[in-house]
Amino acid sequence: MAHVRAALAIATVLAVGVTPAVLGGTATAAVPLAAGAVSASGTVVQEGGTLVVPSGEEGPATTRIKASQYRTTTGLLKARLLLPTMEWDAGDESQSFGLTTTCAVNGGAFQSCSWDDTERGGVVPLPTAPASTSLTYDIRVDAGSSAPLRLGGLTATLEVFTEDGDVVARGPLSFTFVPGTPEAYLRTTVLARDKAGVLWQYESTGHADKPLKARKRIGGGWNVYTSLTSLTSRTAGGQGDLVARDRDGVLWYYEGSNNADQPFKPRVRIGGGWNQYTAIIGRGMGLVARDKSGVLWRYSRNGSDNPALMLDARRQVHTGFNIYTVLTGQANGYDALARDRDGVLWAYPSGWPGYDPRVRVGGGWNTYDTFTYTSDLDGVRYDDVIARDKEGRVWMYGCVYRNGTLVPTSTRKQIGWGWGIYDAIL
């Protein structure tokens, strides 16, 4: 495969999580000086040392550099940042997305000094300034969550030089990229309804040490519903839909609003007759419902914008599901989990039109009074499962694929307590 010489060394560093020297890159990728150029006699000092740049919603981090020269010059002084360079497969250029850099000199306005221009061979021009024995440069780096996930360190070189190409100051700059908090659209939420009918939202953090933020009130009056089901994956940015069944058996559609503070638009009626079901779970942006005889019915989602027409006519997919005391499904996926009366947890891989034969996960799940699939809470990658025990403690299980289905691991972590105040968790 063809290779390209990349100025975007930082993207490669992010992608592999090690320093360029380990990867075979040069430490400074120095550019040949103009004819008659002399060695730098000045210094470059990075105030505060290595700049730590979080990858996420924290926003940009700024490093300040003092450049001093020991001889008198006139005219304009130019500057360049020499990034480590290396070769990688051309297809890896997609790793550059999510990085923004701007630069300023002597307190002036910030301007673009993009690090992802591969045509410059590892050289990033910085703003020019009138000649002086001392210059101050600010470099602002913003690494969004769409940057590569495996992060590392980077050492570059800053050079100050005259219009004739004489380098008058040179020194190293160092950057370390660490995981931050993913932007809201990349984080999910957990919803919980208390016994007074108030709906609360817990945003995920994307961090394993503390997967949930403090709860936020969504609104009251949700105790008119006997069932709440995620129809699509939710995000902390207000995306994601759900359906709710009232006491008369009418199913209502709540579309995501894209507003983090009020994540749902006003409800719209889907239709009646849903009281015949003892459980309603999500499946691939549609629904699966169990009737009182244990028959499982699938309602596929179609492309209609009319909520009354958004679900296709039901079709029978399985029987015998009344042996289970808890059912949960993936809103955006197609797998399901079911607990029998003996406390054994079973996984149902997606199949057509329903599920493939069940796979035993393990026993002991009757210690929980409810559990549900969630989207990824801790930034590991896959969906998670949260379960509430009879003392109101909430536990998180990471999931892995086993025999073609997404199942919780045997390791759990407590992520909350006092959740006995809720009568619905999704």
UniProtKB/TrEMBL annotation:
<protein>
    <recommendedName>
        <fullName>Tachylectin 2 domain-containing protein</fullName>
    </recommendedName>
</protein>
<feature type="signal peptide">
    <location>
        <begin position="1"/>
        <end position="29"/>
    </location>
</feature>
<keyword id="KW-0732">Signal</keyword>
